[in-house]
Design goal:
The chain contains 6 helices and 10 strands; from the N terminus they run H-E-E-E-E-E-E-E-H-H-H-E-H-H-E-E. It has helices spanning 2-14, 91-98, 103-118, 131-146, 165-215, 218-233, and strands at 16-19, 23-29, 32-38, 41-44, 50-56, 60-69, 75-86, 151-162, 239-243, 248-252. The chain has a 3-stranded antiparallel beta sheet, covered by helices on one side. Strands 6-7-8 form a 3-stranded antiparallel beta sheet, covered by helices on one side. A two-stranded antiparallel sheet has the order 1-4. The relative contact order is 0.08.
Length: 255
């Protein structure tokens, strides 16, 4: 009896397969793939006529080291990361048409797409802010070839760029010169703004003095004098006022 139970247990274990999170599985019976895709759980099958083919549907990273051509004909060494995943709705197509060794297909498509895209850019573009545009163009071109085959390209990342020594030095010198020019332009703008501020301040002072001088007529001075005398008359202190009849000069004495 123990032998029978042991045989049954072995048969049960050999006739089930566990699909873990992040995986997809498809039954294959007599070489024919089933239409249903299992994404998680346990699958029971006949081990004598069927098997379960599993593959990852998580985002995976394919790293490559490749020489990229530039528009001027230079060869740029670059470390590349390709982030991709399998479309779970097309797992059967991937297994049927590409098999499980699909990374070699992705690599080949990348080499073709990167050669087409990078040949449109100068080497200095790969070392500047244009890098993101190159990455997007390669991603787009790869997706055009692989999306229908069930492979989704999430991103292409150029992690490092190794330019020829002479070109790298020239680019650094040019960037330094551009930064120096921008710094000088900023200083010139600051100097011009300060000069403009002083001119405006001087004009304002001049205009204020002009307005004040034009407003102080003899009549206004007389009126102000009368007002001053009226205020002095209200004070209990003794005063000595010297005047020529037009402008008073006050000498205030203590009590």
């Amino acid at each position: 009896m123990k032998l029978i139970f042991s045989l049954i247990f072995v048969i049960v274990l050999s006739s089930c397969s566990v699909i873990r999170p992040g995986e997809a599985g498809v039954k294959q019976r007599f070489g024919k793939l089933a239409s249903k895709v299992y994404t998680q759980g346990t699958i029971f099958y006949n081990p004598f006529s069927s098997r379960v083919i599993k593959t990852s549907i998580q985002t995976r990273n394919l790293e490559l080291s490749i020489n990229l051509p530039s528009k001027e004909g230079l060869s740029i060494i670059s470390q590349i990361s390709i982030l991709y995943r399998i479309d779970k709705d097309k797992v059967q197509d991937v297994i049927r048409n590409l098999g499980l060794n699909y990374e070699s297909i992705i690599s080949s498509v990348f080499r073709s797409a990167s050669a087409d895209v990078c040949a449109q850019f100068y080497a200095k573009d790969m070392h500047s802010g244009m890098r993101s545009n190159i990455e997007k163009e390669i991603t787009k071109k790869m997706s055009e070839n692989l999306i229908e085959r069930g492979i989704i390209i999430d991103a292409v990342l150029m992690k490092s760029i190794q330019l020829p020594p002479g070109l790298s030095s020239s680019i650094e010198q040019k960037l330094q010169a551009e930064q120096d020019a921008m710094r000088m332009e900023f200083l010139l703008q600051q100097t011009k703004l300060e000069a403009d501020r002083k001119i405006i301040e001087a004009k304002g002072t001049r205009d204020a003095q002009k307005i004040l001088s034009e407003g102080l007529t003899n009549e206004i001075i007389k009126i102000r004098s009368i007002e001053a005398f009226m205020e002095l008359s209200k004070s209990p202190n003794s005063k000595v006022i010297i005047t020529n009849g037009e402008a008073p000069f006050l000498i205030q004495q203590e009590k």
